[in-house]
Write a structure and sequence with these properties.
202 residues, mainly beta, six-stranded antiparallel sheet, 15 strands, 39% strand
């Protein structure tokens, strides 16, 4: 018997999946399978993951929106501590949902996983004091292959929860905060990405 449930094509975006594991718990704690190739295959997901990554970030950190240019990756992401708002943006040429985004709260409590196929930009915002973020990839990391999009591109229109601020024509974090006053914290690189219309010319 499988240990997961899978919601496929969430928000009508082909390939995006939300995976919920079966958690076996009692007064002592809990146990769950965090990855089973067999269970995924039973749901029609047959992806050869080759690398696991893990990061820690503090509240207000926003990472993204990232994609790989020549070596795109499928990612299976989850949070093992804290809470993040995780976002995928469809960048697949010819896709009926090109430019459309979907976001999901991933927390240590809900233990949900988000499957993001190749051809998407990805990013997340940390909403807890700290968050530990884990993800599997179906290709190795290739230096100098990363591309990106402005996290606040109005043409995409991502509704980042708990974020206040006004768009001033760039991805700069200045002037943006969470509702408790925590400044939005982006890397220097992530504050320089351009908008969708300036990045892709199909």
């Amino acid at each position: 018997m499988g240990q997961i449930t899978v919601e496929k094509n969430v928000a009508g975006i082909e390939g995006l999946c939300v995976i919920t594991p079966t958690v076996h718990g009692d007064s002592r704690g809990y146990f769950m399978e965090t990855y089973s190739q067999r269970d995924l295959a039973e749901h029609g997901i047959d992806i050869p993951f080759v690398q696991d990554n893990q990061s820690m970030s503090v509240k207000g950190v926003l990472r993204g929106l990232h994609f790989q240019k020549q070596y795109p990756q499928t990612k299976l992401v989850r949070v093992i501590k804290g809470k993040v708002f995780d976002v995928a943006v469809d960048l697949r040429e010819g896709s009926a949902t090109y430019g459309k985004w979907y976001g999901i709260l991933l927390t240590e409590e809900n233990k949900e996983q988000f499957l993001i196929p190749r051809g998407f930009a990805h990013g997340f915002l940390v909403l807890s004091d700290t968050a530990e973020f884990c993800y599997k990839c179906d290709d190795f990391y290739h230096p100098n292959d990363e591309g990106g999009l402005a996290w606040n591109d109005p043409a995409i229109g991502i509704l980042w929860p708990d974020v206040t601020g006004t768009y001033h024509g760039s991805a700069a974090a200045e002037g943006y905060t969470l509702s408790d006053g925590t400044p939005l914290n982006l890397s220097e690189k992530d504050q320089k990405w351009s908008c969708l219309a300036d990045t892709f010319h199909f």
